[in-house]
């Protein structure tokens, strides 16, 4: 019997579940409600010294709220008589003593409010938008983060006193230029910084030392996940144009390769010495793992590569694309990567591919929701069921087939189950779906609506899922949440 537990490491949200049950149950009841504004509201935050007063900011407005029983009372920000003052779009809010409020604007200014009246503008606190602010009323210091042109004087993180005279500007020394801070928090002599590049950095106030706590993909869904054949490391490929190497026991990112174009799929060679990467623009790249240098690259297609696989004997590379095709390349011919054949008459785009253990066949799951089998490298379709039944598959990532009928729920639409992976032992299959659920089944599961365990954590739309070497972990990738979850497999006694 196998269960999954979400590892506590670099994921931006933390959750554990077993058998579909949450670990914590919370109840919320609505106290009061009222329309806030006709334009978008970006932040609503209670004053740290009050349970009844809060401020909301958004597109060209600031409102000061008071909760009175079940009623919400508000006053809009008044610009008073400050010369040339205009209501700007406000992105962030912080608080000071004596009923002061600070709001950060899209133009880089910080506005100072006494109660609901504007009393001062600190012009160009940042050269770009002030995305985030944080106050500690204990000492009154204010942290701001925004977009900043890099300079010798400082960067996108700044620390101010209550008079908003700049106390210190910090350069975030992480090996690359960081010019955009999106979130800040402060305590015990340290500042936590969330960046546009999906990093969380710890900054020492006294020595300005930077320590990267969390790395992540910064743009678009994470599409590709590839587990190393023997080690507890894995690769992720994403829309942000990077492929990243992660160490599971150390719980950290080991390396990153910038590809220049969005990446859709990634796969290790059987020996773990090469990595194949399929790109959104139809190109694919093979890297040498030890040096991260390009061994070869090719672009025979003009649309996205959805899956890419080495054959178990390391001779062939199969490349499945949006162009209703799977191309075969003979790697023994060298890095020129000349296409030797392709699968014909594929009815739709290729979603997942798996080689047979003897490297003689490949199975496809397609956008037409048909599972097809082809010979390698001739590309001839195999239609005899007796032949298909005798094939032993090296891997199984297809969401289609008689062996996986049970992974589809009663009311499932065709697109609901997005990814799957059978364990190396062949005893279990793990799936991801459009609702953010990871499900664990026995394999095979040929009967409809098979029993399973559900595990919650992702917000929605899983894009990929893989067992790691030895079935010690499961890696799941999220689309909308852009997160990688690491699940530890627990093998309970029968």
Automatic annotation (TrEMBL):
Key words of the record: Repeat, WD repeat
An example of a Gene Ontology cellular component annotation for this protein is: microtubule
Highest taxon listed in the record's lineage: Eukaryota
**Which positions fall inside the EML-like first beta-propeller domain?**
30-202
Start and end residues of each EML-like second beta-propeller domain: 222-489
Q: Does the record carry Cell cycle as a key word? A: no
Do you know which Pfam families this protein is assigned to? Beta-prop_EML, Beta-prop_EML_2
Q: Which residues cross the membrane?
A: none
Q: Which SMART domains match?
A: WD40 (SM00320)
Q: Does the keyword Repeat apply?
A: yes
Ranges in coiled-coil conformation: none
GO MF terms on file?
microtubule binding
> Where would I find the WD repeats?
228-256, 298-339, 455-487
Stated name of the protein: Echinoderm microtubule-associated protein-like 5
**What is the organism of origin for this protein?**
Synaphobranchus kaupii (Kaup's arrowtooth eel)
């Amino acid at each position: 019997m196998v269960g999954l537990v979400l590892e506590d490491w670099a994921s931006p949200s933390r959750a554990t579940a077993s058998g579909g049950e949450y670990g914590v149950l919370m109840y919320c009841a609505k106290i009061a409600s009222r329309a806030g504004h006709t334009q978008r509201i970006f932040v609503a935050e209670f004053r740290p010294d009050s349970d009844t007063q809060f401020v909301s900011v958004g597109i060209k407005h600031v409102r000061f709220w008071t909760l009175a029983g079940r009623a919400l009372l508000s006053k809009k920000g008044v610009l008073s008589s400050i010369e040339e003052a205009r209501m700007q779009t406000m992105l962030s809010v912080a608080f000071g003593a004596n009923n002061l409020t600070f709001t950060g604007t899209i133009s880089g200014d910080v506005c100072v409010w006494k109660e609901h009246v504007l009393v001062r503008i600190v012009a160009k606190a940042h050269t770009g938008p002030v995305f985030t602010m944080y106050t500690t009323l204990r000492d009154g210091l204010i942290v701001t983060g925004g977009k900043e042109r890099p300079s010798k004087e400082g960067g996108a993180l700044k620390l101010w006193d209550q008079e908003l005279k700049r106390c210190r500007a910090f350069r975030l020394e992480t090996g690359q230029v960081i010019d955009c801070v999106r979130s800040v928090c402060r305590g015990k002599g340290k500042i936590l910084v969330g960046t546009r590049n999906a990093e969380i950095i710890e900054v020492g106030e006294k020595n300005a030392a930077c320590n990267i706590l969390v790395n992540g993909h910064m743009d678009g869904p994470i599409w590709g996940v590839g587990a190393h054949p023997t080690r507890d490391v894995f690769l992720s490929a994403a829309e942000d144009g990077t492929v990243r190497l992660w160490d599971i026991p150390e719980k950290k990112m080991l390396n990153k390769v910038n590809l220049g174009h969005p990446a859709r799929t990634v796969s290790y060679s059987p020996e773990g010495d090469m990595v194949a990467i399929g790109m959104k623009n139809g190109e694919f790249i093979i890297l040498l793992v030890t040096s991260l240098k390009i061994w070869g690259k090719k672009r025979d297609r003009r649309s996205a590569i959805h899956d890419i696989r080495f054959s178990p004997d390391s001779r062939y590379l199969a490349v499945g694309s949006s162009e209703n095709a799977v191309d075969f390349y003979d790697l023994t011919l060298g890095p020129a990567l000349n296409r030797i054949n392709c699968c014909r008459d594929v009815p739709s785009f290729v979603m997942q591919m798996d080689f047979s253990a003897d490297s003689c066949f490949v199975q496809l799951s397609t956008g037409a929701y048909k599972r097809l089998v082809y010979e390698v490298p001739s590309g001839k379709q195999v239609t005899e069921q007796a032949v298909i039944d005798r094939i032993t598959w090296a891997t199984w990532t297809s969401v289609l087939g008689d062996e996986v009928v049970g992974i589809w729920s009663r009311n499932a639409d065709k697109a609901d189950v997005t990814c799957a992976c059978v364990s190396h032992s062949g005893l279990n299959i793990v799936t991801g779906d459009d609702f953010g659920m990871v499900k664990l089944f026995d394999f095979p599961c040929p009967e409809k609506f098979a029993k399973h365990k559900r595990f919650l954590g992702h917000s929605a739309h899983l894009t990929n899922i893989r067992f790691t070497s030895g079935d010690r972990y499961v890696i799941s990738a999220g689309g909308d949440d852009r997160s990688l979850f690491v699940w530890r497999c627990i093998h309970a006694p029968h």
